[in-house]
Every structure is written in C-alpha cells, then in structure tokens.
Amino acid sequence: MQPPGLSVIVRDHTIRTRPYGTRRRSVEKANRTSSVLTKLAVVGDLLMLQLVFVVISLGILTLFPAAFAMQRVLPDAISQEKPKLMRRFFQEFRWAMKQFWLPAFGLWVGGVMLAFGLSFWANADGPVRFFALAVLVPLTGMILGLYLSGLAILPAAPETSTVKSLFRSANLFLLRRPLPVAGGVVVLLTWFALASVVPTLLLVGSGLVPALTAYRLSRPPREKTSEDVSI
User: Where would you find the membrane-spanning parts of this chain (predicted)?
Assistant: First the structure.
C-alpha cells in the first residue's frame, strides 16, 4: 500500500531507434546529389571548352591546333581530377601552334579541297561522277579515320612528338582497331550531315563531337567478367 502524499515517478527507458535503413538512404541520397553535381561540372567544362574552341578556331591557322589542345585536356575535363582547365588548354594550344601550325594549315587546305570535290561530283552529271565518288568517298573515310586515330593517341603523346611520330602512331592505332574507328567515322559523317541541315549544331559540337568520339575510341575495351557470362 502506497503511503498518502507519496507519488511515484516512472520513467520510460525504452530506446527508440530510427527506422531501419534511414542512415543508408541518407548516404545514398548524398551520393546521388554529389554524382549529379559532378556531371553538371563536366558538362559545364565541356561547353566552356567548346566556346573557347569556336572563338579561337575563327582563324584559319588556329583551327586544328585548337582541336589538338582540346583533345589534350578533354580527359581532365571528364575526370575532374585537375584544376585550372583553361590555363592548361591555352598551354596546350601554344604547344600545338608551335609544333604543328604548318601541317595543320595543310590539313585545313586538304579538307576544304576534299569537301569541294565531294560536293562538285555529287551534283555533277555523267558516268564520270560515279568513278570520282568511288575514289573520293573511301579516301574521305580513310582520312577521317586517320584523323580520329590521331586525336585518340594525342592525349598520351609526349611534348616532343613530331608530325611523323604522330602519323606513325595514328596509323598503328587504325590498324589495330579498324572496326571501332570505322564506327567513329560513321558517327562523324552522320553529325556532319546533320550540321549541314542545322548549322546551329556547329556552335555546340564542332569541336566536341570529334573530340568525344576520339576519346571513346581511346578507351580500352571493357574486359568480360564472370557476371557477364550467363549460365
């Protein structure tokens, strides 16, 4: 029996835990947010590179050196591992201008002549056009394949590289991976066809499309694991 005037305070010592998985869901949400921010940063850097490329490539001599500089810094823009991307871009641009300005000009002249020849014979009449196109179309594909191969090996090329050494390395790359390079040529030709219909695409992809295509070619093929083998 409880004495009068005496009250008993009973405390509830039950431990209330959070719902199962709350912390895990918070971590997953934070990881997703970080992943989205990283992808946005990559897109922003790529668009900035494209803008700088368009401005610099307005000069005839600077077109291909700007493309080479973009290719050299593209892996860093995608990986987000190195800061000061624009400073590195202009350093690589000065290097490309010093090393390759004359061959780059020759490449520009050859590209213009080849495009003019394709356009001329595609709109010409007579049986000669079929012979001319039978020569020019495979030649164009070969040149684009070598160009993509050169871009693919460019990020790993030393600063002492010459035109001869780059051409040799690009040729070896093309011989070792002919089918992926052929696919890259198809992608590039398809994009050129779209850009001829919608010229605005040149502002957003004239440098990025070849650079990203070559970057994809430079990635080693993914090795199959036991998870890829179905029983």
Answer: 47-70, 100-122, 128-154, 174-194
Q: What is the DSSP string of 88-155?
A: HHHHHHHHHHHHHHHHHHHHHHHHHHHHHHHHHHHS--STHHHHHHHHHHHHHHHHHHHHHHHHHHST
Q: Classify 45 as helix, strand or coil.
A: helix
DSSP string, 173-230: HHHHSHHHHHHHHHHHHHHHHHHHH-TTHHHHHTTHHHHHHHHHHHSPPPPP-GGGS-
> How do residues 140-165 score in pLDDT, each as one tens digit?
999 999 999 999 999 999 989 899 99
- pTM of the entire structure? 0.81
* Residue reference for tokens 């030709």: 189
Contact 93, 69 (CB under 8 A): yes
Question: What's the CA gap between 135 and 15, in Å, rounded?
Answer: 82
